[in-house]
Each structure stands twice: as C-alpha cells, then as structure tokens.
Amino acid sequence: MTSNSSSLAVAKQFLRKQALERRSALTDAFRIEASLKLAEFVETLDLAPDAVVAGFWPIQSEIDPRPLLDELRKRGHKLCLPVVAEPHLIFRVFHRDSSFVPAGFGTLAPGPEAEEVRPDVLLMPLAAFDRSGNRIGYGKGHYDTAIAALEKSGPLTCIGLAFAAQEVECVPAEDHDKKLTGILSEQGLLAADQQVSIIREDAT
C-alpha cells in the first residue's frame, strides 16, 4: 500500500467511525419512520419496468430497505439479495415466502435452491456518503468487487440507501472508486454531483 493509499484509508476509517456513531445514535422510532419514508420516494428512482433490483438484508443500525423493496415488488420488479461468495457477491431471487439462510457478513438471503440472477440495479448499504456520490463501505470490498464484475456484462445502476445523518462533507475517493448514481435517504433522492436533493422532506 502506497503512502497516499494509506493516508486515504486512515481518513476513510475516521469518517466511517463518525458516520456510524451518528447512525447508531438515531432512535428506534426515527429509524422506523425513515425506513418507511424510503418507499414514498420509489418513483424518483426512475427504474426501467423490467429492472432486476438487488436489495440487502439490514444489519445493526442500517436503514431498513424492506418497505422500499415491497413497493418495488408491487410494481413488478424481480428482487434479489446478495450472498457473500468467491470471487465476488452473487445474487439470489427472493419472494414473500422465501426461506432465508445466513448469507455472510451477518445478513440473510435465500439458500442455494433459489434462482441466481444478474441485477440491473444495486440498492446498497453504506457507512458514509458525500454529495458527489462517493461512498464509504464497511472496508471489506464486497460491493467493489461485485460492481467491477457486474459492469463487465452490462449497465449497472448503483444507489446507496442511508440515513441523512450519514452524510459527510467529502469522501476521500480515488480515481478508480465507483461513484453512486444517487443516494436515497429519508429526505429524498440525492443525485450524484447535485447540490440539492431532487425531493426533500420539507418540500412535500
């Protein structure tokens, strides 16, 4: 690791710690209301009608994507969840009656009997984000390697899901870091490189 890469890693770890502390400090009531709010902004995602969408099973104090996923299901989208595998994440289709098993990193997903698919859209968890669409993950690189592999087979839309409290002023990103298309929080959809949210809670 070069000196510059090392300093960036230290800076990211500092921002990750601060953002996760703010996230953990949110009340349970706020967390529930914010997670439900995501579903109200489903149309702002502007997804193709036949897009296969990958969500995630929430862990720890993450925002809960399940209300949003349920709304996407009602609109006809095929849904899938990530499974930690080598050399990168794989994605298995899930339904309302799916049985779930441990899928790595504390998450759950359907078992090996479920259909494996290539998602068109990744709804991604994160530790921190900035308004240019840069994200800080949990440091394991699972999504980084998955995105690199998925982009070899076609277009991929990456949208981070987070609480607004996880925003930082600037993520120290490198040239090879993949920017998000946008970040959806309880305040609405923030498109990468825009300085204001497309939809804000105080404008509804």
From TrEMBL:
EC number: 6.3.3.2
Binding, ATP: 12-16, 135-143
Record's catalysed reaction(s): (6S)-5-formyl-5,6,7,8-tetrahydrofolate + ATP = (6R)-5,10-methenyltetrahydrofolate + ADP + phosphate
UniProt GO MF annotations: 5-formyltetrahydrofolate cyclo-ligase activity; ATP binding; metal ion binding
Top-level taxon of origin: Bacteria
Gene3D superfamilies listed in its UniProt record: NagB/RpiA/CoA transferase-like
Cofactor: Mg(2+)
Record's keyword terms, sorted: ATP-binding, Ligase, Magnesium, Metal-binding, Nucleotide-binding
Pfam families (UniProt xref): 5-FTHF_cyc-lig
Residues reported in the UniProt entry to bind substrate: 62
Name of the top EC class for this enzyme: ligase
KW Ligase (keyword) present: yes
GO biological process: folic acid-containing compound biosynthetic process; tetrahydrofolate interconversion
The family this protein is said to belong to: Belongs to the 5-formyltetrahydrofolate cyclo-ligase family.
Protein name stated in the entry: 5-formyltetrahydrofolate cyclo-ligase
